[in-house]
Amino acid sequence: xxxxxxxxxxxxxxxxxxxxxxxxxxxxxSTYCMGWFRQAPGNERERVxxxxxxxxxxxxxxxxxxxxxxxxxxxKNTVSLQMNSLKPEDTAMYYCAAGPSLCRLNPxxxxxxxxxxxxxVSS
Length: 123
Description:
The chain has 123 residues and is mainly beta. It has strands spanning 3-7, 10-13, 18-25, 33-39, 46-51, 58-60, 68-73, 78-83, 92-99, 112-113, 117-122. The protein contains no helices and 11 strands. A hairpin with a 6-residue loop joins strand 4 and strand 5 (46-51). The protein is globular, with a radius of gyration of 13 Å.
């Protein structure tokens, strides 16, 4: 019953920045772990970042640590992903997802998904 919509994707050159946003409707996300996943052609879907329900703890994949920052606003029912120092390897479809408060790593543990937003980084 939670609907998620991503925005903010686009094409940038290596070293550039993008900010992705996820807006939820239908139900509050305040009790959910919120995650950002990405999937490139031929690759498995991987979690790049997640943030616990209260917003106090965040998790990052090693490949993006230090470059990406996840945040949430439970009043506005939104989640964001700030992406800096982008690399061509970051090119993928990025998805916002909501799941149990444990913030599991497996995408199958997440209950609600957005349709995705494309990020393309050129060299």
